[in-house]
Amino acid sequence: MTDPDLADLDAFTAVARHRSFRGAATARGASASTLSEAVRRLETRLGVRLLNRTTRSVTPTEAGARLLERLVPALGEVQSALDVVNGFRDSATGTLRLNVPVAVAKAILPPIIEAFLKAHPGIAMEVATDDNFIDVLAAGFDAGIRYDERLEQDMIAMPIGPRRQRFALAASPAYLAANGRPEHPRDVLHHACIRHRFSSGASAAWEFERMGEIVRVNPAARLTATTIEMELSAAIAGLGIVASFEEFVSPAFKSGALVPLLEDWWQDFSGPFLYYPSRRHMPAPLRAFVDFIKAAGPKEMPPALG
Questions:
Q1: Fold exhibited by the domain 94-162+271-296
Q2: Which of 94, 133, 185, 289 has its Cβ near the most Cβ atoms within 10 Å?
């Protein structure tokens, strides 16, 4: 029996962690067929089935589970060893894999990534968007970004991007002329509203706050969408009131396409955090990114609209 290829072992680990060829392929930037072939090649060389495959699921066999248990720390040590060598170069090289919420990918991360990649030409980045809170290591990522700073104890969290953000409420001048302007958060219950649905299928209630008073409303939706582009377009077209990140709505405020509503009730919240595992030898690309974020320093929330 020939020794298994390290790349095939890595492919098996990714698929077994994700319990999906497609999920592992998305995280690794590879094709599902390539990973499937790697796993088949590994099983042939070992003479043992490692994964049970059905049309709905992929699960490790007993042999596969035992192999995975030993491989995860072993492959981690291999990466750590390579990162030690990487540290002798003038600049870091390799690939940094991040899992981030859609809002961060759209409004916060682009200028950070552009500046980082210009400063580190030897590093490539893979960014996957996901609004669910996941196990970034099990999913094959080096780090994640989330708004919830209550992370697992073995994770390190550091601020990235603006430290305070706000949710804005808006509608088009035409909609307000035809339907009137809400004077209190509960008034939106009597208006046509445009709601956002996350990839998990959930739609969050609209929350407002003023002088310590918190009001949560769950208005009926005239339109429910999963993309902010569709939501803003519908609001600009006069179909209803929309609530979203202030960063997304500000351009429409500046152009006059949308009008801010209930500004003194806009709730601000903590900005996002980069989180990653606490381990002795951090991958060189991640170390470079962490140092870059630290050097950039915290950002303040933009001033309120006049």
A1: D-Maltodextrin-Binding Protein; domain 2 (3.40.190)
A2: 289
How far apart CA 280 and CA 261 sit, in angstroms, is 49
Which residues of the chain fall below pLDDT 50?
301-306
Torsion sign over Cα 179, 181, 187, 192 = positive
What pLDDT score does 139 carry? Answer: 76
| CA nearest to 141, candidates 97, 78, 105, 80 | 97
Give the whole-angstrom CA distance, residue 283 versus residue 73.
14
Q: What is the pLDDT, as a whole number, of residue 220?
A: 94
Rounded CA gap, 126 and 26, in Å?
Answer: 10
Topology (CATH level 3) of domain 6-86? Arc Repressor Mutant, subunit A (1.10.10)
Domain locations along the chain: 6-86, 94-162+271-296, 164-269
Q: Yes or no: is domain 164-269 CATH 3.40.190.290?
A: yes
CA 203-209-211 angle, to 5 degrees, is 170
Question: What does the pLDDT read at residue 305?
Answer: 39
pTM for this entry: 0.66
Query: DSSP alpha helices (H): ranges in 153-201?
Result: 173-179
